[in-house]
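hiii so um. not sure if this is the right channel but i have a protein structure encoded as tokens and i wanna go backwards to a sequence. like what aa goes where. can anyone help
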């Protein structure tokens, strides 16, 4: 085969400012397929028009974009590819902000610096019926899932006599980078019978259960303190206080949202971090 419009892998690598090794990797991953491969020798040939794509793949690799997303981006028209890049980088910055908060939290913890002081209180709750959604998910999914799930449950509760108390989220197991819970979104409902009939009619995947009467040990946190990992300090504080008081934790931890999240500022108190105790 001879085609003077094709470049050898060495010539193409020089044009693209990449190594032949990188080009072989991109071919293997399906990101940059040669224009022609000699069936006898396996030698690769490229077209000059492929240089721009090769450089784009290399640049996206430098910002650690996952290979599957690179494969999507390089197939998009310019404006759509730019938007996809913007979305990806926003996710990166959000992840780095969380990682930075974790580092700051760990630095204070390991160095023995004074931790935030929390005021712990208790409250007795009556038995109540609650509409719930339960789901296994990772920590980075919580900020989107919690308001969506509570919103769905609150709308359902309004059709069943109204919301009977502040919504809350119960963590039946750790939710984080390596653990998927599950978590349970809960909204107290006024009329349990009406709620059961609503569930039988709509079959949304939600359920109804009775939350028994009991006591909560809790501390109140601001909107800024709800962010991970700061909220972990609040849970730790409630656990330590419970142990000092000789109380026993009788159920999974929870976050009780008593304020309008969207209207609250970073310094407004919005949430009770709590454990059932006995």
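sure thing!! here u go:
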């Amino acid at each position: 085969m001879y085609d003077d419009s094709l470049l050898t892998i060495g010539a193409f690598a020089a044009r693209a400012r990449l190594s032949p090794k990188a080009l072989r990797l991109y071919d293997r991953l399906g990101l940059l397929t040669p224009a022609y491969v000699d069936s006898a020798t396996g030698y690769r040939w490229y077209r000059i028009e492929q240089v721009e794509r090769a450089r784009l793949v290399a640049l996206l690799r430098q910002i650690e974009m996952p290979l599957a997303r690179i494969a999507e981006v390089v197939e998009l028209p310019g404006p759509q590819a730019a938007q996809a890049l913007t979305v990806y980088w926003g996710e990166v910055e959000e992840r780095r902000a969380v990682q930075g908060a974790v580092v700051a939290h760990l630095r204070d913890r390991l160095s023995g610096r004074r931790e935030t002081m929390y005021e712990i209180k208790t409250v007795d709750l009556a038995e109540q019926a609650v509409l719930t959604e339960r789901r296994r998910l990772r920590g980075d999914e919580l900020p989107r899932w919690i308001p969506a799930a509570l919103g769905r449950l609150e709308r359902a509760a309004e059709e069943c006599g109204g919301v009977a108390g502040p919504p809350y989220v119960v963590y039946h197991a750790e939710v984080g980078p390596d653990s998927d819970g599950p978590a349970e979104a809960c909204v107290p409902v006024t009329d349990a019978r009406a709620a059961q009939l609503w569930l039988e009619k709509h079959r949304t995947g939600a359920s109804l259960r009775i939350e028994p009467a009991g006591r909560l040990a809790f501390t109140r946190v601001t909107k800024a303190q709800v962010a991970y990992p700061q909220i972990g300090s609040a849970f730790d504080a409630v656990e330590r206080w419970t142990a000092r008081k000789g109380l026993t934790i009788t159920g999974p931890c929870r976050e009780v949202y008593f304020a309008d999240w969207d209207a609250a500022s970073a310094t407004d108190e919005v949430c009770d971090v709590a454990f059932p105790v006995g």
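oh and The first strand starts at residue 6 and ends at 8.
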